Amino acid sequence: MATGYRFVIADDHPLFRGALRGGLDENSTIMEFGDFDGVKAFIAEGNDIDLVLLDLSMPGVSGLSGLVALRGIDPSLPIVIVSAHDDPTTIRRALELGASGFISKSASMDDIRAAVRRVLEGEIVEPVDIDLGVEGDAEIRDLIVRLKTLTPQQTRVLSMLAEGLLNKQIAYELNVSEATVKAHVSAILQKLGVDSRTQAVIRLSRIGTEPLSAEN
User: Which of 66, 84, 96, 102 has its CA 20 to 30 A from that of 132?
Assistant: First the structure.
């Protein structure tokens, strides 16, 4: 693996973060976060990052809503999900929502290093010998299609709505006018096919539940 990369490890288990850190290139810069608010704020600051290794469950987030939120902040940033929830449904949904790869926490360190290397080279990585199948939940399938029509800023606004922020708070965080936020909210409602902010948040929550499964 080439040296000098800047990695972010987002996982609430210190021992696992330490294991991941030990498996990555020792000459790279590695930032660790044990909660979602920390990693989200770090990325929002515009720090130069080459790759994020993101767990699906940590304080402040549950499920794939964290991936959606980070993709809204920086859609060009490669994000690899590293999770114990490694069923085909979760893997497929993560990749469809823009993850650059999915690594099971049960994978060997050699496999993790190989996957990271491939993502850094521009590949999309998924576990081998797993049939990801097709989405069996029509509502989730429709939701993912609709979420992918949102612009990055609209995605970010939707995530902030899910956090319970008011328009004026979102405007302050994004350094835009309240009128701009209202326009984003209107576009979000239209694209998600809902009539209210509450309904939009409820729809988003369908991919933020845990454990993730086809039955959710």
Answer: 66
Q: Give residue 80's Cα distance to chain centre.
A: 8
36 burial class (0-12, 13-18, 19+ CB within 10 angstroms)?
Answer: buried
CATH number, domain 138-205: 1.10.10.10
Q: Of 144, 177, 179, 173, which Cα lies nearest the Cα of 160?
A: 173
Tokens of 89: 């449904």
Label the pairing between strands 101-104 and 79-83: parallel
Global pTM exceeds 0.85 = yes
Domain positions in the chain are 6-120, 138-205
Fold of 6-120: Rossmann fold (3.40.50)
For residue range 160-195, what is the model confidence (pLDDT) as tens digits? 999 999 999 999 999 999 999 999 999 999 999 999
- 117 Cβ contact partners less than 8 Å away, ≥ 6 residues apart: 1
Q: How far apart are CA 214 and CA 157, in angstroms?
A: 27
